[in-house]
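Practice record 12: protein with zinc ion.
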Amino acid sequence: MPIYEFRCNQCNKEFSQLFLNPKEIEKIKCKYCNSRNLTKLLSPFSVHQTEESRLSGFDTSKPRRDEFYRDSRNIGLWAKKRTRELGVDLGPKMDEIVEKGRTGKILDDYNK
Ligand SMILES: [Zn+2]
C-alpha cells in the first residue's frame, strides 16, 4: 500500500497520503490549503530498503560523496561492509560501534 509524501508549493507544508487507488494521486490536494500545486517527495514509508540491501548495493571501492554521509543510516555502512568483505565478523560489537557512530556518541569516547 503506497504512502506518498507531498510538499505543498503554496503553503510549504508537507503531508503524507495513503493511496488505495493509484489514480487518486492525480486528484490529490493539499490538506491545508487545497492547492494542487504539490511536489511529490520520496516517501520513507514506501522505501523498503533494508540494511542488507544497502550493504549489498554498496561499493566500498567507489568514493563517497558528502550527501552519502548526510543520511545517518549510511554512517558505519562502509566499515561494516569492509569487515564483512575481509571475512571478519565483529558481531554485536560492530553493531554497537556503528550505532555509536550514527548517534555521534563515538566522539564522546574519543574525547574521554
Ligand atoms: Zn498547501
